[in-house]
Amino acid sequence: MRTLRIGAGAGFSGDRIEPAVALAEQGRLDYLVFECLAERTIAQAQQRRLRDPRQGYDPLLEARMRAVLPACRAQGVRIVSNMGAANPLAAAEKTVEVARALGLQGLRVAAVLGDDVLEALRGGDYRLEERDAPLASLGERVISANAYLGAGPIVAALEQGADVVLTGRAADPALFLAPQIHAFGWTFDDWTRLGRGTAVGHLLECAGQVTGGYFADPGFKEVPDLARLGFPLAEVNEEGEAVITKLPGSGGLVSEATCKEQLLYEIHDPARYLQPDVAADFSEVELEQLGPDRVRLSGARGHPRSGLLKVSVGYVDSYQGEGQISYAGPGALERGRLAVEIVAERLRLTGVATSETRGELIGVDAILGARLSANGSAAPREVRVRFVGRTASLAEAERIGQEVESLYLNGPAGGGGVTKAAREVVGIVSVLVPEGLVHPSLHLLES
Amino acid sequence: MRLRDLAHSRTGDKGDTSNISVIAYDPADYGLLLRSVTAERVKEHFGGLVTGSVERYELPKLAALNFVLRGALRGGVTRSLALDAHGKCLGSAILDLEIEEA
């Protein structure tokens, strides 16, 4: 029975690059997949594209391609990635440019277009999934709308011989499902195998999170050599059953425990993990340790897809301003609390309008609140004040950090180490659209 | 005994919803988890940090529970003012739950 070897080269836009190079060189891979888009990434990429039409793809695309293309070409490894972000065509052009600079001729690079549905949504009546309001309520603040594409257009690109496939928004597991559909000839109504292939993709899509990243808890869960964490690869058979493993000698750990944590990561109802191609069902999944760093995945299933695609809508929500300052030694807690009161009062006195604020002490109550972070009666000897607020303009957001900074000379004793920041907040909401509204297309280039 | 002695956990985020897995180190403890780590206890543990409902899904073949906490991310990852906008720290906090010996 044929085995397909799929590696994960990145789990987010800023991920480490060397583990992907190691996989390309030593993994005997058929495919190397880079998942680089978070919820908000594409909206911010769209803003870059609006400023410069040649931009809008992943900022690390060039560095990643330069690092992995030679080994991928030498080893016959095909690449699938959503690094196209808001501009897959420009990403493909840049990839061709990198290939030529590396002396790699005849590399076929496909751009998958059509996830951008901003125009198609105009005038339509869509309800926001997150709040009881229509899409139209966001008015002119909308900056992007991208549908989560399924595996179909990626499979089409592979059938046309693409060595590199670059998408914009696509469902993360679909990047991994597509090579399996292409290699094994699965049909798009083979729900069981599509469900299994989705499980493989879900385990791989966050790269190091299944090989021991986001896992170590000293004294409870030990992971060797995290600084040299190896990224995962799956050995998949034509039934869609797989072994998750990593390169021998790389850091990290593949165990039943790491795989269980990742299987449930960002899952709600495990029996209905809704994807563009299938409603995957992980409720009967079994994970079995076969040997060191080798875990067998079986038992995933699938049910017919809904026919609806999720669309991520990016919009300018508000502005956020923040300042931080530290107090230490005896009375640190009381001086920190006084600092919070002063900043809140100063914003009132100077007429800075905020719709929401948080004044908190890092190390005391900033993350879980005072009750869950309580740890006996000893007063903390160091606190860091964090004051953050939401405003309607950047100028007002900047005023918050300035008020924290002015505590240096005008606030409690011994305040040090001020940092401040202000930024536009791009929010993300979603709507569901019929899949017929979305028309993916391919654009093929060659180096 | 604390839940941390029996189980490990990972947190994920989607919009304003957090999911927290609770996975028994030893599958023999799954029954104890089922009895002691209920949706109600989890909701009570987090108090005001979770403004919506808490649902629990059971995965006997993995000896795991999956909790879905709505309204747990201060309006959603992308617009939250919270220091940990993703709620990544919530999974560590759930391991503080006290578990009665079987």
Provide structural commentary.
The complex is a heterodimer of chains A (447) and B (102). By secondary structure, chain A is α+β, with helices and mostly antiparallel strands. Chain A has 2 domains: 3-114 and 149-306, no CATH class; 313-429, Alpha-Beta Plaits. Chain A is built from 13 helices and 18 strands. In chain A, strand 7 (232-237) and strand 8 (242-246) form a beta hairpin. The mean pLDDT of chain A is 97. Chain B has 102 residues and is an alpha+beta fold. Chain B has one domain: 2-Layer Sandwich (Alpha-Beta Plaits), CATH 3.30.70. Chain B is built from 3 helices and 4 strands. Chain B has helices at residues 30-36, 39-46, 90-94; strands at residues 7-14, 17-24, 54-59, 64-70. Chain B has a 4-stranded antiparallel β-sheet with strand order 1-2-4-3. In chain B, a hairpin with a 2-residue loop joins strand 1 (7-14) and strand 2 (17-24). The chains are: A alpha+beta (447), B alpha+beta (102). Chains A and B meet through helix 9, strand 14, strand 15, helix 11 and strand 16 of A and strand 1, strand 2, strand 4 and helix 3 of B.
What is this structure, in a nutshell?
The complex is a heterodimer of chains A (447) and B (102). Chain A has helices spanning 18-26, 41-51, 61-75, 88-101, 118-121, 152-159, 172-184, 191-204, 256-263, 332-349, 369-373, 394-405, 407-410; strands at 3-10, 31-34, 78-81, 108-113, 142-147, 164-166, 232-237, 242-246, 273-274, 279-281, 286-291, 294-298, 301-303, 308-328, 356-362, 382-391, 416-434, 441-446.
